Every structure is written in structure tokens, then in C-alpha cells.
User: Fold this.
Amino acid sequence: IAGVIKMVSALQHGVLPRTLHAETPSSHVDWSAGNVRLVQQARDWSAGDRTRRAGVSAFGISGTNAHVIIEEAPTAEPTPAEEPDGLPVLASDVPAWLLSGRSGTALADQADRLREHLIAQPDLRAGDVAWSLATTRSVFDHRAVVLGEDRLSGLASVATGRPAAGVVTGQVPPGGVGRTVFVFPGQGS
Assistant:
């Protein structure tokens, strides 16, 4: 894990760290054949024409061996422009509206209240509503996603409990979604 963190940091900072504890290269390797060298000092490793890659190996005392190849991430896309009101421009013309409630009734009530609010405020932009629903609301066990151009019908569908195109509803299973555990015991079993 430390080797993975070290190589990810090296990619991020563009510096290839020196090889630790290898001041004297092994005499059992013919260093003149091929193009393999130990890095004696930290050196620049900035992005260029070729993709940067690093191999990280781990050899456990019980015989467990692991090797991973880490590659630099692709160049990031430009960040979305901001609209005059400071909200980000969403990439999709049809953003998802996320709804949730502590119970099915609460979910239906939220959908109905949102629908009434949108009828009273017809100038609200779909992207702004999606942003607010996704970033300012709590997430509860009963959930719905409303997609498509006719969102008012979708909200009515959630409020009445009837299925409709562009509406997905569901409930988190009792006991939650489960827990993920990673165990690195260092044993081969």
C-alpha cells in the first residue's frame, strides 16, 4: 500500500523518487545490458509525449506476491463554465432530479410539494433544481429519480405511487447497503 501511495504521489507531483536502500547496485545484475537503471537521486518526471507508468511489487513473507501497474490519469477535461449566478453549468440538458424521504409517504409528499413549487415558479431552471436537490437535501431510505423533459408528470407519478417513463423509485434494504471491509493480513490464506 505504501508503494502504491508513493507512486501515485510521484505521478501527481512529477518527481521520480530515488531508490531507497540501494546505494550499491547488486553485482548479480548486468546493468550494462538493457536500459534498466536504479534512480540514485530524485529527478523530474513530468508528463510528456509518453504516458507515465510505474510498477509496484509486494512480496509477503508467507509467499503472497502482488504486482500492480499504475498509469497516470488522462488529461482532465476543462471545468464547466460558471453562469452569472455562480452555479455550475451542468453537462446534460436533462439533469436528474433526486428525491428521498424517510418513508414512502414522505417521499410522495416531497414530490407533491416540489411539483406545486415548480408550478408556482415556472421560471426555475431544471439544472438549478437538480443542483439544489443533489447538494442541499438529506438522503433517506425511500428514493426516486425523475428524468426526462416532462418532470412535472414524473413528480406526479412519484406523488401518486404510479410508475411512469423517466421515473425510478426504490428503497434502501433494511440494515443499509452493507459494509465493505478490506483485510490485508499478510497471510497467503
